[in-house]
Design a protein that fits this description.
Length: 269
């Protein structure tokens, strides 16, 4: 599949699940004093999560252009070091505002990756939030139990607050998340070292491709958490990483997202 076909397949899949397809928001944020640039797909929907505005549709899907800036979970320091963090990047996302929750988000993610994109099930790993006593947050057994219907338990890994509790910034909507990782190593490397040991270990060929965030809380200025008026789903899949996985490349820059530009520049240099 070409990168255009991959993007189109994502939007068509969620359209078939009764999602309204909406345009990408501007990269330069307007009417929000807490953000200068769009750094996550959920930015334009923040008021919906907080209950301060009502969406016209309870299910939405889109593709959002984002700028990687400093802040929580943005990994700005990784740009230029590895082959899968970019300053300007694209996020594929599906959203539920008080409609479906963990069960459907997990089921549809698995269906899209394995049935539509035909990714190798044996190369997929998922993580769930292990809980955090200091915040009074318990292990996400609900997500764990839903994942058991689709993937063997030895591929469901526990993650700490840093990796599996998503927050947009110092304040705002947040919640436990479930990451999906893909092992792109050679068969020989996979026989030598189990993929479980390389998830979230900065291995260049075992990388996160999709994050399913279950928005349940709002982080207040005093650092405490309060429950949101309703529970929501906020997912973000790295488009460039997904293309790399589907096209079987060892670097994002080897895909047809980047190669036409790289080739053009090389010819003109």
């Amino acid at each position: 599949m070409t990168n255009r076909e991959i993007r189109e397949a994502f939007l068509n899949f969620f359209k078939s699940k009764n999602h309204q397809i909406v345009p990408s928001a501007p990269v330069v944020v307007k009417n929000d004093p807490t953000l200068m640039f769009t750094n996550a797909g959920m930015n334009q929907f923040k008021d919906f999560f907080l209950g301060e505005a009502q969406p016209k549709h309870s299910r939405i899907a889109d593709t959002q252009r984002c700028l990687r800036v400093s802040g929580k979970h943005n990994d700005l320091e990784e740009v230029g070091i590895d082959t899968y963090h970019h300053t300007l990047f694209e996020m594929l996302g599906n959203w539920s505002f008080g409609d479906y929750f963990k069960k459907e988000a997990i089921e549809w993610a698995w269906e899209l990756l394995t049935e539509v994109y035909k990714l190798d099930k044996d190369r997929l790993y998922v993580t769930i939030f292990e809980g955090d006593d200091s915040e009074g947050l318990v292990k996400d057994t609900e997500a764990y139990d839903f994942w058991k219907s689709w993937i063997s338990e030895d591929r469901i890994l526990l993650g700490n607050k840093k990796d599996n509790f998503w927050e947009m910034g110092e304040t705002g909507p947040c919640g436990p998340c479930s990451e999906i990782h893909y092992d792109m190593r050679t068969e020989e490397e996979r026989r030598t070292t189990p993929g479980q040991s390389l998830v979230n270990a900065d291995h260049p060929q075992v990388i996160e491709i999709w994050n399913l965030v279950f928005m349940q809380f709002n982080r207040l200025k005093n650092g405490s958490l309060e429950s949101l008026p309703a529970k929501h789903v906020d997912t973000g899949m790295g488009f460039e990483r997904l293309v790399r996985a589907i096209q079987g490349k060892s670097s994002n820059y080897d895909t047809d997202v980047f190669q036409p530009m790289i080739t053009f520049i090389a010819q003109k240099a």
